[in-house]
Amino acid sequence: MESHFHMMTGMGKRKVITGKKEDLEQKRIDFLTELCHQMQNPVVTTTPLAPVCTVTVKDAVEAFLKQYELTVSHQTFLGEKTNTNNISRIMGDMLVTDVTFDDFKNFVNVISKGKGGNPAAPKTARNHIITFKKVMMCCQKKRWISADDYELITSDVKIPTYVTDGGHEEKVKEKKSLTCTEAREVLEALKSNRRYYLVARILFLTGMRPQEFFALEKKELVQDEGYINIRQALVKQDKAKGAERTFDVGTTKNRGSRRKVPATERVFHYINELEKFLVADGSRKKSIPAGNENMIIVDRNGNLIDEHAFEVNMVRYLQRNGDCKRFTLRMPRHFYQDQLDILGANVNDVEKAVGHVIETVAEKHYKVNEQYLKRLLPYIDQLGTILENAV
Exposed, middle or buried: residue 334 (CB in 10 Å: 0-12, 13-18, 19+)? Predict the structure, then answer.
């Protein structure tokens, strides 16, 4: 038996009913009754709701750091961790799905206020903005927020003008910089301490970071060709690991830091004088059982230099023995760059020599072309003469 009917949409359909002849009419009635019931009570299908995201900003920070630590040097990671600690402190309890542009802007304003009534440095504010964007990008990749959410939250956030227009960077540069006269005063005050004096001399004429010099090995000196290889640096140990020493040898600050530093005969002379000093005071002999006999410099017990302790003691020594500008181990690096610029050295050559990443077309050129070493040597020799004649 065939039963023809029309749906509410107007579409015609048919139903073929089979069975015993005496049962066909009842089956037809049952079918139409059920069809009528379905049309009067249609089944509503709904899309299942997405699970509610319960990830907080603090959770997102931890997820980001877990991945980030594997991709950078330990020193860079520690710097990023300082920024993420502030993110967790200010916004940690918020759900990542609740974060808005206003929340991000408020975070930047809080960081920009600084401490003790002094505005934060523009660099500090910029670094926190960059770190927050990295955390939010991690959230996007884990699908805790959408690409649109990320764009709405992070776009067009600016640093307050009282930070950018406060002249902070100029004040910091002035504080870190040394004139030739001030450099001479520092060296004069250090002359009676041979260890400090020779270290300062070498840093003034190489522009090395102190952590790079303190991790330097003898095999990296290439005197015949006039350069020093920088392949490693001191890194601060994680206190949570219960390390006996505060510093250990590890990777350099960034990829640009692994480089060749031009070095004149005067520099190698100072290094040789430093070795003679270490032999004379017994430090070199003590370094042999400690496994540090190949290091350019060790402390009085033959161990790796503790960079922080070395600098603190050096500053205190200067305060007791000289009337000069407050000195830190990073100031020779700034002096080196400033003076080579004044003497007329090529800016890109200097940038490469001090280990800055050159984000230009010239970067590939400098990786294979080491002519910058020979080009800089005359300027460094001239700078050495200026300092040598002064003290």
Answer: middle
Q: Is residue 231 part of a domain?
A: yes
Asked if pLDDT for residue 360 goes beyond 60, the answer is no
Q: Are 186 and 318 in contact (CB under 8 A)?
A: yes
Looking at the domain assignment, is residue 200 inside a domain? yes
Model pLDDT, residue 390 = 56
Distance CA 153, CA 133 (A): 9
- On the CB side of 346, CA atoms within 13 Å amount to 14
Neighbours of 168 (CB within 10 A): 18
Residues 314 and 182 in one domain: yes
Residues pairing with 228 in the sheet: 221, 261
Domain range holding 118? 57-174
Same domain, 282 and 350: yes
Q: Is residue 42 part of a domain?
A: no
Residue 115 backbone phi and psi in degrees, to 5:
-130, 155
Q: Residue 44 domain-assigned?
A: no
Taking residues 99-124, report their average pLDDT. 89
Q: Pick the residue with more confidence: 255 or 260? A: 260
| pTM for this entry | 0.70
Residue listed under structure tokens 């523009």: 122
Contact present, 180 and 339 (Cβ < 8 Å): yes
Query: Distance (Å, rounded) from C-alpha 349 to C-alpha 81?
Result: 32
Calpha distance 315→310 (Å, rounded): 9
